[in-house]
Design a protein that fits this description.
It is built from 6 helices and 12 strands. It has about 210 residues and is an alpha+beta fold. The strands form 4 sheets. It has a 4-stranded antiparallel beta sheet with strand order 2-11-8-9.
Length: about 210
């Protein structure tokens, strides 16, 4: 609900909720997605061993599967070599919103499937990530999808989608706000997972 207020509604260029220091900053600028990010830039060579991210690896912005595989046995779709800060956008069934902000903290090389678009933000990477989840953006993507069972959008149509964006400092403020909430959600999710594991273990003892 907060995201829908911090970003402009369809056809508008200012959000309904704005931080005080930006209330007189004027309207947001309408740009194509490829004007605020580099989309599917040429990747470097595929390493001999890497962590592969396919469409089943990400759920609700979390990397739930971490598979280390070798290039010789890798699927042909393993082509997008990732760098820190890249954003993965799910091209197939985008209404699921299983996108990923790549903030990897280890030294492994990560390679994503071509089922994702690889976006590299020109300004705030976290703002871009949150923008991809706003209802108006997802609606624009779905409108351009083809196919019934597995609706998908192609990279050129994705690049042409227009979005309203503020100046870099306001992008950072919005990203800080939403990212702090994501941290709270992650912490509560970890607590929930621990409680579920405790319950499962307790049931094995009680029966």
């Amino acid at each position: 609900g907060l995201m829908q207020q911090l970003f402009p509604r369809e056809g508008e260029t200012t959000p309904s909720l704005r931080f005080p220091e930006f209330r007189d900053a004027g309207e947001w600028e309408v740009k194509r997605l490829d004007q605020i990010s580099m989309i599917n830039h040429p990747s470097g060579p595929i390493p001999d061993e890497f962590v592969y991210i396919d469409l089943e690896s990400v759920v609700n912005g979390r990397l739930v599967q971490r598979r280390l595989i070798r290039r010789a046995g890798a699927p042909s779709r393993a082509q997008r070599v990732l760098t820190y800060g890249d954003v993965l956008f799910q091209m197939v069934r985008p209404y699921q919103r299983n996108n990923l902000l790549c903030l990897f903290e280890d030294t492994e090389t990560y390679v994503a499937s071509t089922g994702y678009a690889q976006l590299r933000a020109f300004d705030d990477k976290r703002f871009l990530y949150h923008l991809l989840h706003v209802d108006t953006f997802v609606g624009s993507v779905i409108a351009k999808c083809t196919g019934s069972n597995y609706p998908a959008i192609n990279p050129s149509d994705l690049a042409a989608i227009e979005v309203a964006v503020p100046q870099a400092s306001e992008q950072q403020k919005i990203a800080d706000c939403l990212s702090s909430l994501d941290e709270v959600i992650d912490l509560q999710t970890q607590k929930l997972d621990a409680l579920k594991a405790h319950k499962k273990g307790l049931m094995q003892q009680l029966f």
